[in-house]
Write a structure and sequence with these properties.
Length: about 350
Amino acid sequence: DPGATRTACWVAGVVISVVFFASLVAHELAHTIVARRHGIAVDSITLWLLGGVSRFTDEPTEPGVELRLSAAGPATSLVLGVGWWILAVLLAWIGLPELWVGSLLWLAFINLVLAVFNMLPAFPLDGGRVLRSLLWRRTDRTEATRVAVLVGRGFAFGLVGLGVLLVFGGALVSGVWFMLLGWFIEVAGRMEQLASTERDLGSSITIEQLMVTPVATVDEQVTLDVFLHDHVLGRHHSAFPVMHDGSVLGMIGLEDLRRVPMAQRAATTTGEIATPLFAVAVIDRDATVAEAIAEMARLHSSRALVFDQGALIGIVTNTDLVRALQVHALEGGGAGGGGGNGRRQETARSGDSS
């Protein structure tokens, strides 16, 4: 605004920037409010270079829920855009300075752009998730995600191509921006597809198919030097359940052993340094891979003990879970795949990676 002072321009710039970021927060809060109303916990909201990201601890379990959750953000931006436009018209009507009217019109424009751009059917944008929810009504979520990602990839390449044309046309900043957006959509779409496939497969594979059984255990009275030579070196495992009168007392691993000086190992027993059972990931034999991963992540553990009616029947490591997901993904995701041999016997293992 040539008629405004330098100070007024700076004040308007700062105020409108803050309000714009508040608009982004409102967009993301709309997602989280709908999510919480449907019982989906919200982990965080992050604002960054390309907008905002809401992270949830769970995924929608129904297409209708995902549709409402995804549409909430763009709908909020649309309402804000219309609201700022109406306010700008009112301020212009009562004769306020052009600087503030123009600033409000910019807010209206950028919120409308945000609403329209996010509704493009380019997964993982909101519009792509809306597309997935509509496809999900006719097929399963994995297939719906695959199709939505393919459509999103087409839009991503289109944005990159548009950016290249803009760069050659002299609009360097705008061209680079469109190329960056296209790259983000393509990469984020592939990552979302991988994560979605792992979640779906993880819900169809049970721990009983993966666990190692029988479990190699160690008595609580065994000293650490005997434990090292007779169990760790002899069995090639990195962790063992510690037993007390037939019941599991806890878990001992190489990380526990390293904390004890070599000179004290002959006088220290496994029961004295074992991680208590309440701090060990414990799962049921019918638990899915997804449930096991969540429990192990909660306790920051790389392995879990498998119980059936209070009795220890197996053990599974994080490496086992990741490998099972990779194998099932290669086989097409059929539940019960991966060779179909059920649980693995201890004698078939060549080692335990953790």
